[in-house]
């Protein structure tokens, strides 16, 4: 059992989580079985772990018991631990948030701060495949699209979920094989919350009545994930077929658009990154020539044969070409550029957000520039396989439209290298034994 669990998680991390073994991992440690198992297995896999524990003071002595437990556990495992105390009721009152949302926002805001402070590459959280099934049902019960039926992602921005491949029972069995204790949150046994009722009442009844239903549900989530990937790719193909760009203006051919049965949804998927909502897109298809619609950053005009979309005047694209031979860039964003030639590189020198490194091949680039996000922008994030839409990164980061348009991007010869302040791409990667490289940091 012990070896099987270990190998299963290792294979899942390698294939789906993209965790770099050379960089530290921040582990969200509550003290419960799941998070304790996560910390133990990551340590056994050889990752450099740092733990973070939130004390929300919502369960009286039990909250303090949890803090004592994780403190003692981390001392025994020789793991550095950060603990933070939160005033959740005050936050709820100030922000009008629910209890669940307040805890989530406080927790992840602090985790992001710790990532930068300690130079960690990601936040590891202990969701497992039973949690994934619960999320699938909760989203379905709320009313969701195809993306909501894909459950949780193994990696979502800076958050990784290495235990999505295993069940709660497998976690408990593995901890038992290690003789590892843990604490139990008594509120998980109360059925006042929707997720608890689903976990404690509904799903056990389904599993009891329908043999093999759990495995079938996990297979459905997997299939929906593949379908969503295909859907996103298909939307991109259709966008290319029916639209063209001339500078900042996007022109969508109405005749081609009308040839699709689901034209409203297709138009919405094309214009969603530009700030338009579904109702606006439906109205566009029945509006008279000359009518215009606006989002926070774009304007769409209905013509006889096309829909023309262009940035609002105050959001015309700003581009600034920079010289990497300069030591300092002051406009439009302050950057410090250091050329290193005599010191061996270490990943600890950068954090991938406000400080990044490139090998010296970047100096051969024809044009290096700073600009804002454009629809369809895609980059290859460091620590991940394949590429990712910047719009998906912004969604992961929960960016507002204002934050999206104000974020600066470093680009070299048409390839995005750095979403400044948030994520680096893997282009021009510096080998660990290199003594010659370029470091760029937000000044």
Description of the structure:
The chain is α+β, with helices and mostly antiparallel strands. It folds into 3 domains: 2-219, HUPs (Rossmann fold), CATH 3.40.50.620; 247-314, no CATH class; 320-442, Phenylalanyl-trna Synthetase, Chain B, domain 3 (Phenylalanyl-tRNA Synthetase, Chain B, domain 3), CATH 3.50.40.10. The chain is built from 14 helices and 22 strands. A hairpin with a 2-residue loop joins strand 5 (155-156) and strand 6 (159-160). Helix 11 (263-271) packs across helix 12. The longest helix is centred in the middle third of the chain and has 30 residues, at 213-242. It is globular.
Broad shape: globular
CATH class of the largest domain: Alpha Beta
For this structure, the quaternary state is single chain
| Global Rg | 24 Å
Strand order of the largest sheet: 3-2-1-4-6-5
Attribute tags:
6-stranded mixed β-sheet; globular; Rossmann fold; 5-stranded antiparallel β-sheet; alpha+beta; single chain; Phenylalanyl-tRNA Synthetase, Chain B, domain 3; 443 residues; 3 domains
């Amino acid at each position: 059992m012990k070896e099987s669990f270990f190998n299963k998680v290792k294979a899942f991390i390698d294939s789906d989580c993209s965790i770099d073994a050379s960089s530290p991992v921040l582990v969200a440690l509550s003290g419960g079985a799941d998070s304790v198992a996560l910390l133990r297995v990551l340590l056994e896999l050889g990752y450099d772990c740092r733990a973070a524990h939130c004390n929300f003071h919502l369960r009286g002595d039990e909250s303090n018991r949890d803090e004592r437990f994780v403190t003692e556990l981390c001392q025994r495992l020789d793991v550095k631990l950060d603990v933070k105390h939160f005033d959740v009721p005050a936050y709820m009152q100030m922000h009008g948030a629910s209890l669940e949302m307040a805890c989530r926002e406080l927790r992840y805001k602090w985790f992001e701060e710790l990532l930068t402070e300690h130079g960690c590459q990601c936040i590891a959280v202990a969701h497992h495949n039973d949690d994934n099934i619960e999320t699938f049902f909760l989203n379905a019960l709320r009313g969701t699209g195809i993306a909501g039926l894909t459950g949780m992602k193994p990696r979502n921005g800076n958050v990784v979920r290495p235990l999505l491949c295993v069940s709660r029972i497998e976690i408990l069995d593995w901890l038992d094989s290690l003789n590892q204790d843990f604490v139990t949150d008594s509120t998980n046994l109360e059925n006042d919350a929707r997720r608890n009722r689903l976990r404690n009442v509904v799903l056990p009844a389904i599993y009891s009545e329908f043999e093999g239903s759990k495995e079938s549900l996990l297979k459905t989530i997997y299939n929906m994930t593949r379908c969503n990937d295909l859907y996103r790719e298909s939307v991109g193909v259709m966008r290319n077929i029916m639209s063209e760009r001339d500078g900042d203006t996007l022109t969508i051919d109405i005749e081609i658009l009308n040839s699709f049965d689901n034209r409203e949804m297709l138009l919405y998927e094309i214009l969603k990154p530009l700030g338009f909502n579904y109702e606006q897109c439906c109205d566009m298809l029945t509006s008279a020539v000359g009518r215009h619609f606006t989002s926070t950053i774009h304007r769409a005009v209905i013509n006889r044969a096309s829909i023309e979309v262009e940035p609002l005047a105050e959001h015309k694209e700003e581009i600034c070409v920079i010289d990497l031979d300069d030591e300092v860039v002051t406009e439009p964003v302050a950057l410090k550029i250091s050329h290193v030639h005599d010191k061996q590189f270490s990943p600890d020198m950068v954090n991938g957000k406000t400080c990044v490194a490139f090998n010296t091949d970047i100096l051969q680039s024809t044009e290096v520039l700073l600009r804002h996000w454009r629809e369809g922008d895609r980059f290859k994030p460091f620590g991940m396989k394949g590429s990712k839409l910047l719009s998906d990164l912004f969604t992961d980061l929960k960016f507002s439209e204002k934050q999206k348009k104000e974020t600066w991007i470093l680009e070299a010869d048409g390839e995005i290298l750095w979403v400044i302040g948030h994520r680096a791409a893997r282009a021009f990667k510096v080998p660990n034994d290199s003594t010659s490289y370029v470091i760029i940091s937000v000044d």
